[in-house]
Amino acid sequence: MTFSVPVLVRGYELDTQGHLNHAVYHQYGEHARWELLRAAGIAQDKFIASGVGAVVLESTIKYRRELRGGDEVTVTCAFDWNDGAKVFRFHHEIIKLDGTVAAEITVVAGAMDLTTRKLVANPAEHFRELADNPELLGL
């Protein structure tokens, strides 16, 4: 199952050509990630209280079709846990109402121990322990 959230492209998010500004794509992905975590039972304050914070190590966007003000899109989010490695991936698609994929985003992330400032060894286990609904996270 792929998690998704609806988003309306707002006028103040546009660049000078009337397209969705490139930085906003990243914000849409982050919004979908936090909404997925919240749906799984990991609110932001619960996550931070656990002593671990999420860190983005790399983010790549493939632009497929332009987005303009007023476009309604769905932003998907799925985890790829990378078989127990310290890093994992989020995969996003930004999909227009007609089914056209406007962008694909891949994020390499980790879970950082906020005291030692190092990535935790098995982030999937940390997420599983915190989540009320770990199946939403692919766990």
Automatic annotation (TrEMBL):
<keyword id="KW-0378">Hydrolase</keyword>
<dbReference type="InterPro" id="IPR050563">
    <property type="entry name" value="4-hydroxybenzoyl-CoA_TE"/>
</dbReference>
<protein>
    <submittedName>
        <fullName>Acyl-CoA thioesterase</fullName>
        <ecNumber>3.1.2.-</ecNumber>
    </submittedName>
</protein>
<dbReference type="GO" id="GO:0016787">
    <property type="term" value="F:hydrolase activity"/>
</dbReference>
<dbReference type="Pfam" id="PF13279">
    <property type="entry name" value="4HBT_2"/>
</dbReference>
<dbReference type="InterPro" id="IPR029069">
    <property type="entry name" value="HotDog_dom_sf"/>
</dbReference>
